[in-house]
Amino acid sequence: MNDKNYQKILxxxxxxxxxxYITKAEKKGRTTQEVNQIIHWLTGYDEKTLQQHxxxxxxxxxxxxxxxxxxxxxxxxxxxxGYRVEDIEVPxxxxxxxxxxxxxxxxxxxxxxxxxxx
Length: 118
Fold this sequence. Notes:
Layout: H1 3-11, H2 14-27, H3 32-43, H4 47-55, H5 60-65, E1 79-80, E2 83-84, H6 91-107, H7 112-115
Antiparallel strand pairs: 1-2
Helix pairs in contact: 2-6, 3-6
């Protein structure tokens, strides 16, 4: 990924992408609560903190920099946007793509225990 695209993603507000996560999940019969559960698991944010980030239109860089990434996130593997997530060398970009993969797994009907690497 080139640096210009990377910077653009980092500066995008999480709140601008969040509805797309919800729509993707709901189209496949999943719920907002399940999307939030995934976000809580990955970032360590609770409902209140997540809502604050949405209300404040926190950008992706700050959203993930302030998160406490789940230690089991390293178990997330797969290809997203043509990149193997486990090979992404920039930690922040890797964390963003982790969330993309988890939302994809939810939309594909995977069981929550498997998505959350339990």
